[in-house]
Specification:
Layout (H helix, E strand, L loop, with lengths): L6 H22 L7 H30 L7 H14 L2 H14 L7 H19 L5 H15 L3 H6 L1
Helix pairs in contact: 1-2, 1-3, 1-4, 2-3, 2-4, 2-5, 3-5
């Protein structure tokens, strides 16, 4: 079985696909009035989709760094596609949020959605960059030093 076909990835793909699919449907019918409950449900879908992607990424990295699994460029590419797929529907979500708020309705999931939006954009920006930021360079250097001192394995396995 290929890693990108694991249950974790299948589960992660499902909400991302729904998040992407619904954004294209909503954009095709701009005259449709969308209520606050549906908007909150859509935001929750985006939150859940992003959280599944993060879970899949974290589990993969934990297995790779603990030498239980070989790194997989195919898996990483599949995960990258899913992270990138998450970003465009946020435009639909933001329009919907603005419309609902303009009508005076409150939304419960906006703050959590905004956190995921910032994180997703940061991930994609990192994937697009060729250089490490100073903060990432410091993290890399620290990780290499910890690995060299034998500290990493204990940290990852705990």
């Amino acid at each position: 079985m290929l890693l990108q076909d694991s249950l974790q990835m299948k589960i992660a793909r499902s909400p991302v696909k729904a998040f992407v699919d619904y954004s294209s449907q909503a954009g095709a019918e701009p005259e449709q009035v969308l209520d606050a409950l549906d908007c909150d449900a859509y935001l929750q879908l985006g939150i859940d989709a992003f959280d599944w992607l993060v879970r899949a990424d974290q589990q993969y990295r934990k297995l790779v760094f603990s030498d239980e699994l070989e790194s997989s460029p195919e898996f990483e590419a599949a995960l990258e596609v899913l992270f990138r797929s998450w970003v465009p529907p946020r435009v639909c979500a933001n329009r919907w949020i603005a419309d609902v708020e303009k009508r005076g309705h409150g939304l419960q999931n906006v703050a959590e959605f905004r956190k995921r939006e910032v994180d997703a954009l940061s991930i994609v920006r990192f994937l697009d960059s060729d250089e490490l930021t100073p903060a990432m360079q410091a993290l890399r250097d620290r990780a290499l030093a910890e690995f060299g001192n034998g500290e990493t394995a204990e940290f990852i396995l705990s």
